[in-house]
Design goal:
The complex is a heterodimer. Chain A has 8 helices and no strands. By secondary structure, chain A is mainly alpha-helical. Chain B is an all-alpha fold. The chains are: A mainly alpha, B mainly alpha.
């Protein structure tokens, strides 16, 4: 049973990965990536890593994918007319397809979770523990891997600062744009709190 | 679960290869970033497969679990940072060029 689930999830992950590479539009590519992450999360569960499966869902499927979709929507890359042309499905049909796929994926991952539970009860894993048992993991992270952990926190801080600097509107261009957009106004109103 | 480690590693290898393919072939920056995420996930999968493969020995010898899950957590962290910086670059690029196609960005080509 678990073996069948593994091969099923693996095949699905591969199919979604092909979708990532082959999709014509970035929106479909990112949605395929989301499906692939779901399948990989199920595989992590089957391998005996429930914490990492949850992290995969929360961080990858939750945070990173939302970031991707947010940028696609922000840049208006998911053009509705193009969507109609490529999808070849009516709006309700598309909704049905997306809902069905999501439900099927959730069901499969849930099945994997149930499977993992019975496997542990049967005692196939030593001491009936997950391989990423959280207390042990945290202990390792704060003792032997303390330095990488601190380096990671620095990396995150640097990322935060870097992203703000990159995505912030530059001073020069914003002044030019403000003049171009509203030449008649003596003092264009500052809509955002960013210093100009 | 009695799936041999070889099969898990093979799955990871194919996923990684697909990521490389997308990274090299596609011109859309966002799809290229998605391919990078795919590659990082394949690396994670192989970490976990190896960790599962050697977990029995490691538990017996040192009474400590192997470091596979820790590396996987760090990979996820790096992936999150990479996605944030990459997408900020995409926004900056779009602001500059009004496009996300890599063909339009060839100023540094010698």
């Amino acid at each position: 049973m678990a073996e069948t689930l593994f091969y099923l999830l693996g095949a699905l992950a591969l199919a979604f990965a092909v979708g990532v590479v082959r999709a014509r539009m970035p929106l479909f590519s990112v949605l395929s990536l989301l499906g692939s992450f779901f399948c990989l999360s199920g595989i992590y569960l089957l391998l005996g890593f429930p914490f990492l499966a949850a992290t995969q869902l929360l961080v990858y499927a939750g945070a990173i994918m939302v970031l991707f979709l947010f940028v696609i929507m922000l840049l208006n890359l998911g053009d509705e007319a193009q969507l109609e042309r490529h999808a070849g499905l009516s709006l309700s049909g598309r909704r049905l397809f997306v809902g069905g796929t999501a439900a099927a994926l959730l069901g499969i991952v849930g099945l994997a979770a149930a499977q993992m539970n019975t496997t542990f009860v049967a005692g196939e894993v030593p001491q009936g523990r997950a391989l990423d048992d959280l207390p042990t993991l945290a202990g390792l992270l704060f003792t032997r891997y303390m330095l990488p952990f601190e380096a990671a926190s620095l990396l995150l801080l640097a990322t935060m600062v870097g992203v703000i600097v990159l995505a912030k509107r530059q001073r020069g261009t914003s002044a030019v744009e403000a003049e171009a957009e509203a030449p008649a106004l003596p003092a264009p109103p500052l809509s955002s709190g960013a210093p100009r | 679960m009695n799936v041999p480690t070889d099969h898990v590693l093979a799955l990871a290898a194919v996923l990684f290869a697909l990521g490389v393919l997308g990274f090299l072939v596609r011109k859309n920056v966002i799809i290229v970033l998605a391919s990078i995420e795919l590659m990082l996930n394949a690396a994670n999968l192989s970490f976990l497969a190896a960790s599962r493969h050697w977990s029995q020995d490691a538990l017996a010898a040192t009474h400590q679990p192997s470091a596979g899950p820790i590396f996987a957590i760090f990979v996820i962290l790096v992936a999150a940072a990479e996605a944030a910086v990459g997408l900020a670059l995409v926004i900056a690029l779009y602001r500059l060029k009004q496009t996300v196609a890599l063909d339009g960005v060839a100023e540094l080509k010698g």
